[in-house]
């Protein structure tokens, strides 16, 4: 598996990141270990978890597996923000909660440092300086190597970047946003901002919760045992002509390329722009992981990318339509679609 630099840092991670939200949930410990074994065998070195995944169980499973590995061969990322218990200080991005959460994550992971600590979402109730100052202290102490953000809006990320820069603090080196063929609004402001500031991007849900895996068919209801089938709101949000036309195009491109729909959807993302570091793939079993691993190591044709771009493009209004018009006048595609 190829590796990419995380933004402007010297940190190199595999271009597919293994998400571990399924560990302890739809994948038991033994299957989780097999998934990580296969991922490492394929050349993967980037594991993403969070303290709230299984209320700590995912971190414990990852930590148990790491005990039989060479720790410094892997980049381990986790997150902090959401509540783990019912106490008034058991959530948020206060100094108290961050410090306690990092110590708890270190214990569950069975390690003395976290490669990438990400804030899981914005916290409007805590001063940004308190959060960023605490993260800076953690990097300086050696407990954390790099810091990043997840689920931030563009103005929130830019404010954090400027605040850290003004104080001489450790900056965010990556953003973990939702991004896929079925969620391209991330391109409006977040991706250009990350490219401008040298922030790596590790998108979550690149298959949109299974929608881009090829398992669903027009006119058929999903099985309740699937992630989408168990979420009626998610099904109703995408059960429309736009989604089905996109899925038809995805299936056609996959057939022509000799790949699965999931592999094409992942490769489309890897071909987007240099700002994309590593889509986060999740698997409930080794077979599912095997399919996702096939999204790496090859490149879609320019014609296939164009067809997927056209099928997934959502009309935009001011001010985003002006950018598109300006690009068309210059006779070239927008930078993010190259």
What can you see in these coordinates?
There is one protein chain. By secondary structure, the chain is an alpha/beta fold. It has a single domain (3-212, 261-300), classed as TIM Barrel. It is 41% helix and 12% strand. The protein has helices at residues 29-41, 57-66, 95-109, 128-141, 154-167, 190-197, 232-238, 241-257, 261-270, 286-293, 302-312, 320-329, and strands at residues 3-5, 12-14, 17-19, 46-48, 75-80, 114-119, 144-150, 172-176, 200-201, 280-282. An eight-stranded parallel beta sheet has the order 9-8-7-6-5-4-3-10, covered by helices on one side. Helix 8 (241-257) crosses helix 9 (261-270) and helix 8 runs antiparallel to helix 11. The longest helix is centred in the last third of the chain and has 17 residues, at 241-257. The radius of gyration is 20 Å and the shape is globular. It starts with a strand and ends in a 9-residue tail after the last helix. The model is unreliable at 330-338 (pLDDT under 50).
């Amino acid at each position: 598996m190829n590796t990419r630099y995380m933004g402007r840092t010297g940190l190199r991670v595999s271009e597919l990141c293994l998400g571990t939200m399924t560990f302890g949930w739809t994948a038991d410990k033994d299957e989780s270990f097999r998934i990580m074994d296969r991922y490492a065998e394929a050349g993967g070195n980037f594991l993403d978890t969070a303290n709230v995944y299984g209320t700590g169980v995912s971190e414990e499973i990852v930590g148990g597996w790491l005990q039989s590995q060479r720790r410094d061969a892997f980049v381990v990322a986790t997150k902090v923000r959401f509540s783990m218990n019912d106490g008034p200080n058991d959530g948020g991005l206060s100094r108290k909660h961050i410090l306690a959460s990092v110590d708890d994550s270190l214990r569950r992971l069975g390690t003395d440092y976290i490669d990438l600590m990400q804030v899981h979402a914005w916290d409007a109730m805590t001063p940004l300086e308190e959060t960023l100052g605490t993260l800076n202290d953690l990097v300086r102490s050696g407990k954390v190597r790099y810091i990043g953000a997840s689920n931030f809006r563009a103005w929130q990320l830019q404010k954090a970047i400027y605040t850290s820069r003004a104080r001489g603090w450790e900056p965010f080196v990556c953003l973990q946003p939702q991004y896929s063929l079925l969620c391209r609004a991330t391109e409006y402001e977040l991706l250009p901002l990350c490219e401008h500031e040298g922030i790596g991007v590790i998108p979550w849900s690149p298959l949109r919760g299974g929608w881009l895996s090829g398992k669903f068919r027009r006119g058929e209801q999903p099985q309740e045992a699937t992630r989408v089938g168990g979420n009626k709101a998610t099904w109703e949000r995408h059960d429309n002509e736009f989604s089905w036309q996109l899925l038809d195009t995805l299936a056609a491109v996959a057939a022509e390329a000799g790949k699965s729909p999931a592999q094409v959807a992942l490769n489309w993302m890897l071909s987007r722009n240099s700002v994309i570091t590593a889509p986060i793939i999740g698997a409930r079993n080794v077979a599912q992981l095997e399919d996702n691993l096939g999204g790496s190591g090859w490149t879609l044709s320019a014609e296939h990318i164009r067809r997927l771009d056209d099928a997934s493009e959502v009309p935009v209004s001011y001010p985003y339509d002006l950018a598109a018009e300006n690009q068309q006048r210059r006779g070239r595609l927008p930078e993010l679609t190259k």
